[in-house]
Amino acid sequence: MSNERTRKWDLTKLELFAAVAELGSLTKVAAARSARQPVISRQIAALERECGGHLFARTGRGMALTELGERLLPRIQATLAEARLLSEEVGAAGGRAVGHVRIGALPSLYKLIICPLFYAMLERFPKVQLHVSEGSGGQIDQWLANGTIDIGLTYRFGANLPSDALQLIADDSYLIGPVGDRLTASATVDFVQLAGKPLVLSGAPGMVRTMLDQLAKRKKIALNIVLAADSLQIQKEVVLNGHGYTILPRHAVSTEIESGTLQAARIVNPVIKRRVALVTTSVRPLSLAAREVAKLIRQLGQVKS
Q1: Given this model, what pLDDT does residue 119 score?
Q2: What SS3 class is residue 305?
Q3: Are residues 105 and 140 in contact, defined by beta-carbon separation less than 8 angstroms?
Q4: What are the residue ranges spanned by the domains of the chain?
Q5: Residue 126: is its pLDDT beyond 70?
Q6: Considering Cα of 11, then 12, then 15, then 17, what sign does the dihedral take?
Q7: What predicted TM-score, i.e. pTM, was given to this entire model?
Q8: Mean pLDDT within 279-292
C-alpha cells in the first residue's frame, strides 16, 4: 500500500471517529454515509488500537466518548479541518472553487437567502458543498468567534453597522398575532401597547431580546414573556394557536401572512429596525469557495433589499 493510500485511509478513520462523536451512534453514521455498520465498527476499532485505548464507551444509548476520546477530539477535528483547507487550496490553485463552506443563518432566512443560494451554487459551483446551521443571532456570533462557521447571516442593530458586517436586508419589526386579533389588525401598534401582553420571544441574553428589554426599560413598561424560545417555528406555532404574540421582521412570516394564518402590525414609537448582515469569521482566511459563496449571498441580498 502506497504512502498516499495510507494517509487517505488514516483520514477516513479520523472522519469516522469525528462523525461517531457528533452523532453518538454507529447506526446513524452508517445511515448518513450509506455504509455498513460492521465496516465502520472495524475502522473505529483499528483507530483505537493505533491510539492505545478505547475512544468510545458503548452504552445503551449509543457511543459516548471516553476520557481519551475527549482529549483527542479537538486535535482530530483540527487535523480534518487542515486537510479540508489543503484540499480547497489545491483546488483554488487551479482556479476552481471546491470544498465545504459552513454557514450559520437565522431561521427566517431559509426562503429568502438559503434556498436561492443553494440553487445558484448547484449551477455555478457544483464542487462546493454547503453546510447550513440555523441559530439565533447570539449563537451565530459565537460560531463565528470560534471558527465553527465561515459565514454568518445574523442581526446587527444601530444606525451604523460595524466594519466587519455587510448589510443584506433591512426590515422593520412587527407584532405578530393570529388572524382576527384586534391588536394586530391595525397597520401599526405603539411599542407601549405591548405592556402586559403575552409574548413568545427569543431567550436572553440574545441580541434581539436584550434590545427589546432595554427599550421596555426606557419606555417604563414590563414585557410579559410567557415563553422564551429561540425556535422560529415554536414562536409562530404558539401565536397561530392564539396563546400569545411574537415580534419578528415581516419576511419571517410572509408565507403565513399571504396564506391568511397570521397577521402583523408594524411596531412604531419607536420603529425597531432589524438589519440582517453578512459577517465572516476572523479565525482563519476564507477559502476561495467561501469567498465565492459570500459573493453570491451579497448578490441575493441586493436583489431582496
Answers
A1: 95
A2: coil
A3: yes
A4: 3-74, 93-166+276-304, 170-274
A5: yes
A6: negative
A7: 0.68
A8: 89
The amino acid occupying position 59 is T
Across residues 48-63, what is the average pLDDT? 88
Amino acid sitting at position 202: S
Residue 41: is it exposed, middle or buried by C-beta count within 10 angstroms (0-12/13-18/19+)? middle
Q: In which residue are the cell numbers 441575493 written? A: 300
**Using CA of residue 190, residue 193, residue 194, residue 195, what is the dihedral sign?**
positive
CA distance to 192, 244, 296, per residue, from 262 (Å): 22, 12, 32
Fold of 170-274: D-Maltodextrin-Binding Protein; domain 2 (3.40.190)
Choosing among 3.90.550.10, 1.10.540.10, 3.40.190.10, 3.50.50.60, the CATH entry for 93-166+276-304 is 3.40.190.10
Compute CA distances 219 → 25, 134, 188, whole Å. 51, 32, 18
